[in-house]
Design brief:
heterodimer; A: alpha+beta; seven-stranded mixed sheet; five-stranded mixed sheet; 26 strands; globular; B: alpha+beta; 6 helices; 35% helix; disordered C terminus
Chain lengths: 800, 171
């Protein structure tokens, strides 16, 4: 047992149950008299519902209830993050209902639900529901959807525009582009992705008629937020009458942040059938059709600068597909979280971005790992490479020339990231970008790139190096800033921790955040153990239940280690202070004379006069001898609102070999040098980076959600959507620089998204570098063999 | 119309009546309450439901329960013994071969099948052996490291405590 565990590679306390098959995910929970739900989904992307005949289904064996949209007495789902700012408050917030009523806007939108004794009976009865559909024309592409004459989704959104929003200095940027020696323009597509957590979503609704209380077990990243959204905004029940529980969550990557229709369905269904629990578990096909997708931007970029490589302006116009109706924070992703960080780690004086949110007949889009912040470096990192190629400059040199310099921090970026009233401001507080770039170049063999390329040519391969220098904003966020900027989630962003010390000295840490595989039970225990001087074995970390945990805004945006851990440190500090006061009482000394060494509380100058943390906890629990005015028991809660976000950065280098004959791209080497500040557990940090990098590599090379023109999802299963496999990948090589974050006592920044933010651009740039010698300037992702082969053939034809 | 299935799961004889359409994974999860075996794709792509049937790794969503009549089945719950964890379980823990843990049982069962065939696999062989098992959290990096480490443990003669490797070796 060791108490020296902060910053150490501590094995995870979660793992014993997970490696032995004793994890407890939603679908593993069986409750007494549980019924099962199946949801009938639209086969059309756009159709009017003329009528729904449920009589046949109701007569099927085991069926307890059949619901349609007309049976749901609640509001539509909420949308909590309008683009705001220059877009104003939109009047066209069109969100899904628990079950669609008049029409459907994407294949897979739910229209009816069957509740039955067994899952099989529910599915059988679902087949017996007859819907009289009136199919209507559909549009799935954002650029097509805003054209005159395109099929319209919502009467209150002419031309299918959700919002038009912009940031930056338009006049200054126009002038910079007009006056520039060199301007490079490119249309780039950041394709639609399906996030693919291995556990699909699922929930169990339970209504207790005796207390008029609801309970829902949900595979969610945000049980506390879901209670607010479901109780207040959708169902209109008192907040304290709903309890939300997230058991083990089998991956999420953003998809489980949001408020989904099925939550409402299972809660209402339980009430309708007299309080029996109702379970719904999403099939993978449903997960692909009805849980959020990510990305899906079409961007026109213009990067302007001088022939010596100095970048003077960036002008960007982006169409962001938001789907058929809006998800919980859909509009916030391509606005605040994308356009305000477009300039990344570069000192670009003039930037202007226009973003248009667009409705299409596709499932809604929202935050997927990185959430806007991967899309931004994809734009700027491709732009830097295209500009470097245009002026014949080395991609590393152009990055180095334009980095924000170490002495320029705090740095206020020109896209208005820090603009806010009310005394809250966020700014890039720290960084030192060049050492990470240099280290990545050395590790990747970049300095010998030309020789490696020549050698590869002898084998019929095109070899390329791709750089991606990224800056991430995470650890969201000061609540004041969110309140003041007039855009964004209309709520606070603090976190909470409660620590209770039982009479034996064992510690229960209860958090408002919600893990999905990140190992919070380990990292919080490391932090609290360090603070209290007790071993990790004496600590249990609890979370994920609105009953019994302090309110928290949940885990996303790489915020838990920064915001949540600081709340835990504050709570531990309160515990220590009270223990010290009681130790002074026990030892008949003044509080000032008590010095703390780990779990020992000693009288200065009298080393024999001491009490252990456990002795103090025991005495304070019994409280036989508590001094006047001191409450018994060690039980403290703390809340923490961060003064600023955190700013991880780094450089990744991908090396690819492209087979000339087949167009197959082999990722032969991948180097990542990241600066995520200090680390609570380096083993867990590395794991987060590995997973993030591979998701980003997947986007560059293989993944893409494809809708047919009529709105059918062609990549409708794991047979069709290319989730990266072990055999497609090399061992990744990681290194670090460490620039501690100044905003929290641990100096941590957050690492859940960094890998995915950096890697897509690195791989795409590597393919670009490999194919540039044969005259290929840009290819859109995924860079599949077919796409690359066609481009090689076209380029050869052009050269011939 | 129920069909009767007799099988041995993790060494324990079980008798189950099932609908003809019931999948082996459903029998394992719903009838036997062994929920360590997971369902994640419905199309036999992801491998989360991998178990051993008569000593070989099988995606239990590809097999009807009635096809397992008379079979010896090992699930993740049968890998550890009172003496300790299976070397793969220990190695996944030691080398951070899991994050959310949802793919982990299937991944361990697939890896056990590999170690039954060779105790000295190359990284390429490891990656090939688990390419039918999807993981979205780890990028596979630490899974490969863990399987390599478990292979070394097995080679060093630490007895594999569970049926998985032993059954495989005998077949």
């Amino acid at each position: 047992m060791t108490t020296d565990m902060l910053g150490k590679r501590v094995k995870r306390v979660e793992d014993q149950r997970l490696i032995t098959g004793k994890g407890r995910y939603v679908d593993d929970i069986k409750l007494q008299s549980m019924a099962y739900c199946a949801i009938l989904r639209s086969p059309y992307a756009h159709a009017r519902i003329r009528s729904i005949d449920t009589s046949g289904a109701k007569a099927m064996p085991g069926v307890l209830d059949v619901m349609t949209g007309a049976d749901v007495p609640y509001n539509p789902l909420p949308m909590a993050w309008p683009a705001g700012g220059s877009a104003g408050i939109q009047n066209n917030v069109n969100t899904p209902r628990a079950l669609a009523t008049d029409d459907v806007k994407w294949t897979g939108e739910g229209v009816a639900a069957v509740i039955a004794e067994t899952p099989e009976q529910a599915f059988d009865a679902m087949e017996a529901i007859v819907v009289d559909w009136e199919p209507l024309p559909a549009v799935v592409d954002a650029e097509a959807a805003i054209q005159p004459g395109a099929p319209q989704l919502h009467e209150n959104a002419p031309n299918n525009v959700v919002f038009e929003w912009s940031v930056g200095d338009k006049a200054g940027t126009d002038a910079a582009v007009d006056a520039a020696e060199v301007v490079v323009r490119q249309r780039i597509v950041n394709q639609r992705l399906i996030p693919n957590p291995m556990e699909t979503r699922g929930d169990i609704g339970l209504y207790n008629p005796g207390t008029d209380e609801y309970t829902i077990w949900m595979s969610s990243q945000t049980p506390h937020i879901q209670r607010i959204l479901l109780a207040i905004f959708v169902m209109g029940i008192p907040e304290h009458k709903l309890r939300c529980i997230s058991p083990d969550v089998g991956g999420a990557f953003g998809t489980k942040i949001f408020c989904y229709a099925d939550y409402v369905v299972v809660l209402l269904a339980s009430k309708r059938i007299g309080g029996r629990p109702v379970k719904w578990v999403e099939s993978r096909r449903e997960n692909y059709q009805a849980t959020i997708h990510g990305r899906d931007h079409i961007t026109y970029l213009e990067i302007a600068g001088r022939r010596d490589g100095e970048i003077t302006g960036l002008r960007v116009r982006t169409l962001a597909n938001l789907g058929g109706r809006l998800s919980t924070i859909g509009p916030g992703i391509p606005t605040t979280l994308y356009a305000r960080v477009l300039t990344g780690c570069y000192r670009i004086p003039n930037v202007h971005a226009e973003v248009t949110g667009v409705y299409t007949h596709t499932v809604f889009l929202d935050a997927y790992r990185g959430a806007g912040r991967p899309e931004a470096p994809y734009v700027i990192e491709r732009a830097m490479d295209l500009f470097a190629a245009e002026i014949g400059m080395d991609p590393a040199a152009i990055r180095r020339k334009n980095f924000i310099a170490p002495d320029q921090f705090p740095y206020e970026n020109p896209s208005g990231l820090g603009t806010a009233s009310g005394g809250a401001k966020i700014y890039i507080d720290s960084g030192n970008y060049e050492p990470a770039l240099n280290r990545a170049l050395v590790m990747s063999g970049y300095l010998d790139a030309e020789a490696a390329k020549a050698e590869a040519r002898t084998r019929g391969k095109y070899l390329g190096f791709g750089l991606s220098s990224y800056l991430e904003v995470c650890g969201v966020a000061p609540s004041k800033w969110i309140g003041a900027v007039g855009e964004g989630w209309g709520a606070a962003m603090w976190e909470s921790a409660n620590i209770k010390v039982h009479l034996t000295g064992k510690v229960v840490v209860t958090m408002g955040t919600q893990p999905q595989g990140q190992g919070h039970e380990t990292t919080y225990a490391q932090v609290v153990g360090h603070e209290l001087g007790i071993p990790i074995e004496d600590i249990v970390v609890q979370h994920s239940d609105t009953q019994g945990t302090p309110f928290g805004y949940g885990s996303y945006g790489s915020r838990t280690s920064s915001v949540g851990s600081t709340a835990a440190i504050k709570a531990a500090g309160k515990i220590r202070d009270k223990a010290r006061r009681y130790a002074a009482h026990m030892l008949e000394a003044s509080v000032e004379d008590i010095e703390i060494d780990g779990a020992e509380y000693r009288v200065k100058g009298s080393p024999d006069k001491k009490k252990t943390f456990q002795e103090i906890a025991f005495a304070l629990d019994l409280a036989f001898d508590a001094p006047e005015g001191m409450e018994p028991y060690l039980d403290e809660t703390a809340y923490y609102d961060t003064p600023n976000c955190t700013w991880p950065f780094g450089t990744h280098v991908a090396v690819v070999e492209i087979d000339e004959a087949t167009g197959f791209t082999d990722l032969v080497k991948y180097v990542a040098v990241d600066d995520v500040g200090n680390k609570i557990n380096p083993m867990i940090v590395d794991g987060q980076l590995h997973g993030g990098i591979v998701q980003g590599v997947g986007q560059a090379l293989w993944e893409g959600a494809v809708y047919a023109d009529d709105g059918q999802l062609l990549t409708g299963s794991m047979l069709d959507y290319a989730v990266p496999r072990a055999s497609w990948l090399p061992q990744l090589e990681l290194d670090e620089t460490v620039t501690p974050s100044p905003v929290n006592p641990l100096g941590v920044k957050g690492v859940g998204e960094a890998g995915a933010i950096a890697s897509t651009a690195a791989v795409a740039n590597a393919v670009g570098d490999a194919l540039r010698p044969i005259g290929i300037r840009h290819l859109d992702m995924p860079l599949t063999p077919q796409r690359v082969w066609k481009a090689i053939q076209a380029a050869k034809g052009a050269q011939a | 119309m129920a069909e009767h299935v007799s099988l041995v799961v993790n060494g324990i004889p079980r008798e189950v009546d099932v609908e003809p359409r019931r999948l082996l994974v459903e029998l394992i999860r719903e009838d036997l309450d062994l929920t360590g075996t997971h369902i994640a794709c419905d199309t036999s792509q992801c491998g989360a439901c991998t178990v051993h049937v008569d000593g070989r790794a099988v995606k239990s969503c590809t097999m009807l329960a009635v096809q397992a009549d008379g079979a010896q089945v090992t699930t993740i719950e049968g890998m550890a013994t009172p003496e300790g964890l299976h070397p793969l379980q220990a190695a996944f823990w030691e080398h951070h071969g899991l994050q959310c843990g949802f793919c982990t049982p299937g991944m361990i069962m697939a890896a056990a099948d590999l170690l039954a065939r060779t105790t000295d696999p190359t990284d390429d062989e490891i990656r090939h052996a688990i390419e039918g098992n999807f993981c979205r959290c780890t990028g596979y990096q630490n899974i490969v490291t863990a399987i390599r480490a478990a292979a070394a443990t097995v080679r060093a003669g630490v007895p594999a405590p569970s049926g998985a490797v032993q059954q495989g070796s005998a077949s």
